[in-house]
Amino acid sequence: MLNKMKHYGSYLVFGVLTTVVNLTIYKLLLDAGVHYTISTTVAFVVAVSVAFYTNRKWVFSSEVVGKKVYKEMGLFFAVRIGTYLFDLIGLILLIQFFSMDEFISKLIVNAGVIVLNYILSKWVVFKEPSHGDVSLVTSDGKLEEN
User: Fold this and answer.
1) Residue 87 CB coordination number (10 Å)
2) How far apart, in whole angstroms, are the C-alpha atoms of residue 28 and residue 125?
């Protein structure tokens, strides 16, 4: 039970950090006159980079090493591109079709993005190895899959 609370607490802390990075960059770019689609794209790239590092290390405690880290990173970014598309389509709908404020729209859409990011990270990117997977423990105690 304590481990689950720590896990969810870590996700909450680093999720808030990533969200603040995303929203801050988005708002700064909007205020500088950058179109909302470009602003959200730049904010996405920076925020996902922060999210990968923090989620890998402190939320899901990934022990993958070597070349598998690149596979994990590729999968993480691929999943996040899916939620980026959700973000972008949501913004377009709210701003273009419902004439909502660009920043308020981002806040609304971000709620769905956060939930999707957690679900996809937990069940797709940083999932526990299945029993059929063969793993090796390296000399420094890290888990390495074959």
Assistant:
1) 24
2) 30
